[in-house]
Each structure stands twice: as structure tokens, then as C-alpha cells.
Amino acid sequence: MKKTLAVGFVVAMFGIVSTASAATSSGTLTVTGTVESSISLTIESAGGTTSGTGTAAASSDLGNISKFGSAPTGFTLARGASNWTLSSTVGVQVVKANLTSTDYTLTAQLGSAPASGVAWKLNGSTLSDSAATTLTSTGTYASTGSYSWDIVIADSAAAAAIDNSINFTATSN
Amino acid sequence: MPGDFPAPALGLFMKRLSTLAVTLLVLLASTRPARAEKRRATAAPPDDSLAIAFIDVDSGDASMTAAGSEAWIDLKTVTHAGVARERMTKMRRRIGIRLERANGLASGTATISVRLESWDGRATFRLDGRQLSSAPVTIDTHLAVGPVTVHTLEIDIPISAAEGALTASMRWEAIVE
């Protein structure tokens, strides 16, 4: 009699288990988009009292400058026979994103015509406001390139502001 | 009178009685579903099946299209516009889901899991902080049926990823025990 009850219990349990099951439902979320390549340029350093370094729009204040005065912060001053030169460096970094290019070309151009008797130079090349000057055609991404920066002022130049801007352009190769 | 049977005969009788009892129990068990089917045929119980519905919870963000258990997020053109030193393009979208029963009742809970069904490897996906892969990741073990719950999908695209089309498909599953 005990054996019969035991068998009956097993059968009953089988019946319960066979009717219990997990209910499942599902949904699908699809994400699409287009990844576009890009490069970014930042001014990392410059002579003078700078602000905005680490961004694409830095500024540098040289204060009042004169041939026989002291050099502005971050500059050296060299006096020539008929002119004087303020020298420093500009650090420019270009980073890339989602791009297979291995290097870039960097150019610079003045934002406006320089004051008479004042020459702006980068890497030894005189800049103008009419055409871009190539600083490098093999720039290394994510590495700060240092470019010599000279402002040559003739003794004959009028005592006035020499304000200007240098526009850098990086193009992936 | 049992006393009138010899011992071997009594044993045989008990054995046949046991076999008969087992047979009856098996027959009983096998006929119960048939009866239940008949009952269902005459009076079908309410359908309590469950469905996942996606809900667009960011009305200001037109990138999501939800249609029941299917939804699409179009990131459109993705350009690395963060700080130059950041190694990732990071995006975040909020996704609402609601568990719905066919009978309209808001009762019970379910376990929600999500897995990547397909993806091109350009991006990594995290849902509520958990990185998704082809293996199911449990998002919630007691998600209530009825209310909308909001989940955050984070999409990271490394700057080393090649440009081009990005696509991924995520399978959401709700399981009710």
C-alpha cells in the first residue's frame, strides 16, 4: 500500500510540472547612425600673457613693448641695427577622430594686414593676410608641434598697437 | 475471508490491486488536460500574455521611433565634438519601456534582460550602466507590469573607430515565471 501511494505522488507531481512554464515576450531596439571623421586643432602654448590655451581660440597679450624696454613674458628681445625682434614659440596640437589619415598639413595666415614696419613670422616664414603659409605638411596627430614665432619691428614703425591674429588651418592628408 | 486464501494467492491479489491503482492514477492524470481543454473551448480564460512596448520618453529628442515592441534610434551624423583629449564620443538616450498584458491587467512582475543581437563593433553600449554583449544582461528582476520605466542607453564610439555607418540591434526579453 505504501508503494502504491508513492507512485501516485510521483504521477501527480509530473502533472503539475508539465503545466507550469515560463512566459516570455521580447522586443527589439535598433540603433543606427553615421560616424563622421573629424580633426580638432588647439593652441597649447604661446608667448605673452595667454588665455584660452587648450582651445582653438587663444589670445596673447604682450602689453607695452619697446626696443629698449624689457621683453614681454615668454618672449626674448633682440635688438638689431634698424629693427628689433620679439621671439617666442607657439604650440599647436591637432587630434583626429574616426579618421585613417596618418598626418596633416598645417598652415597659418594673418587675420589682417600687419602694421607698417611690422613683420610676423612663424618657422622663419613671413606671414601675410592674403595667402596661407605652410608650416608643416607632415604634422603628427596628438602631438604638440612647436613653431618659432617672431615679431620683427622696424625702428621706423610708428608707435601704435600691433594687434593681429594668426589663423591656423589643419588639413588631414 | 483472507484467511481462506493461501499466502501466494493473497500476494498475487495485492500485486494486481497495486497495478490497477497505478493504472487508474495514470489514466486520471492523462484525462485531466482533456477536460481542461473542453472547459477552455466552452469558456476561454482571459489572455494574460505579456508584451514589451517601447515608449519615447524624450519628446524633445526626435531620434527615437517607437512602434510597440519595435523601436529605432537614429543617431544621425555622429562627429567627435567633445574636448580634443577625450578618446570617446559619448552619447546618451533615455528609453521608456512598459510591460503590457493582453488582458489589460497591470499585475505581476517580470525579469528583463537585454542582449546585443547584432552590432558592427564601432561602439560599445551600456544600459543602466551595464555593458551589453551577445550574452543576456539582466536589467531588472522585478519589473512591474503596467507602469513605464525609463532606462538609460549610453553609446561610446572610440575616436579610433572607422568612419561609416553604425548599426546595432538589441533584443529585450521579459520573462514571467
What does this structure look like?
- The complex is a heterodimer of chains A (173) and B (177).
- Chain A is 10% helix and 51% strand.
- Chain A has 1 helix and 12 strands; from the N terminus they run αββββββββββββ.
- With 177 residues, chain B is an alpha+beta fold.
- Helices cover 20% and strands 47% of the residues of chain B.
- In chain B, the strands form 3 sheets. Chain B has a 5-stranded antiparallel sheet with strand order 1-4-9-6-7, with no helix packed on it. In chain B, strands 8-5-10 form a 3-stranded antiparallel sheet, with no helix packed on it. Chain B has a two-stranded antiparallel ribbon with strand order 2-3.
- In chain B, a hairpin with a 2-residue loop joins strand 6 and strand 7 (130-131).
- Chain B is elongated and about 100 Å long.
- At the A-B interface, helix 1, strand 1, strand 2 and strand 6 of A face helix 1, strand 1, strand 3, strand 4 and strand 9 of B.
- Strand 1 (23-36) of chain A pairs antiparallel with strand 10 of chain B.
Give the SSE map.
The complex is a heterodimer of chains A (173) and B (177).
Chain A lengths: L1 H18 L3 E14 L1 E9 L2 E3 L7 E3 L14 E4 L3 E15 L5 E8 L7 E5 L2 E2 L6 E8 L4 E10 L11 E7 L1
Antiparallel strand pairs in A: 2-6, 3-4, 5-6, 6-11, 7-10, 7-12, 8-9, 8-11
Chain B lengths: L6 H36 L7 E6 L8 E4 L2 E10 L8 E14 L7 E11 L4 E4 L2 E2 L5 E8 L3 E11 L5 E13 L1
Antiparallel strand pairs in B: 1-4, 2-3, 4-9, 5-8, 5-10, 6-7, 6-9
